[in-house]
Amino acid sequence: MRKFLLFTALLLCHRQLSFAQIDTKATKETQALYRNLAKLSETNILFGHQHATEYGHGWSGDEERSDVKTVTGSHPAVIGIDFSGLSERPDDVIAKTKEALRKNVVATYDRGGVTTVAWHFSNPASGGGFYWNDSVSKASMALIKPGGSHHEKYKQILKTLADFANSVKGKDGTLAPMIFRPYHEFDGDWFWWGKGHTSRQDFIDVWRFTVSYLRDSLNVHNFIYAFSPDNKFTTEAEFLERYPGNEWVDMVGMDNYGDFGRDGKYNLEAGLKKLKIISDYGKKADKLAAFTETGLESIPNPTWWTETLLKTLKAEKLQLAYVLVWRNDSKSPTHFYAPFPEQVSAADFVKFYNDPYTLFEKDLKDIYK
């Protein structure tokens, strides 16, 4: 038997936590997920993979498939999706995208897994997509905030997101909770909402409006709101430079590829220090904390899972709800972040899977209760 999670005992014996969501009307399933992630983070970490069940290395759209499941026998505990296709496209394309995403989220929920949502949000005021393009991109955070020229358009985009959020009902009729992570990696300049293209105050104003409008005006009550810069900080003060306030955030996190082997460069000491800043702030502020994105493209290091990632995660008494690696492209032979059969790190990934510290979908018991 692999790991055995005594979930009920954990719930009964655990000390009382003061973690509270910013949405006082959150569904009971969302509240349960929030509390259970907080409790599990004291002893374990959930493993996540972006787009895990939508496509993988050399395949797309297969029922009940993921590269992680093919290697280990279990889907990831956390599966990442993206709201990128819900704006700046024809209505019929958006409708088709919404239905595919809905099926994905509901299937994950019905199996007992967790969904997290990234938002590669195409610039609503100019061309250029979600990346910053010097020749066409506009600095649009000031334009979509209240009083801006594109504020009404932004409200319509948020309504599309809200309609989707209120459509993801599982087989028991309840709404699937989602960890919503907008405007990620905002401390870099590669996205149009990045630090070099918007003021601190405009970023905070847009964040606060986004949460307030979804929660208070559009009645979205199945989101857990996650704040995650990239790794361009070394102190808590730098991490919090664009933080909108504890009343506007449920989870703090970080995306960090640079310290974990990107371009062959490792600085695990720096990576651990940043994870500790996040974990410590989560404990101090009664927030969930997570390693919201990482990974090593093509995974050429055969022991990356146990010798790099797992050792770092276990080096301090971190409290992180999950760690998520990026996607496995269906067509590219090199753009993948989780192993598949015969990949050089697959055997080490099985060791990572078998470690009692890591939790996959099969290990989750009643996480919504």
Automatic annotation (TrEMBL):
Main location, first listed in the record: secreted
SUPFAM superfamilies, alphabetized: (Trans)glycosidases (SSF51445)
Name of the protein: Mannan endo-1,4-beta-mannosidase
Site (Plays an important role in maintaining the position of the catalytic nucleophile): H184
Biological process annotations from GO: substituted mannan metabolic process
A cellular component annotation (GO) from this entry: extracellular region
Domain of life of the organism encoding this protein: Bacteria
Segments forming domain GH26: 28-362
Active site per the UniProt annotation: E185 (proton donor), E293 (nucleophile)
Catalytic activity: Random hydrolysis of (1->4)-beta-D-mannosidic linkages in mannans, galactomannans and glucomannans
Keyword Hydrolase (UniProt): yes
Protein species of origin: Dyadobacter psychrophilus
Entries under PROSITE patterns matching the protein: GH26
Signal peptide (from-to): 1-20
EC number of this enzyme: 3.2.1.78
The UniProt record lists the keyword Secreted: yes
EC category: hydrolase
One of the Pfam families matching this protein, by short name: Glyco_hydro_26
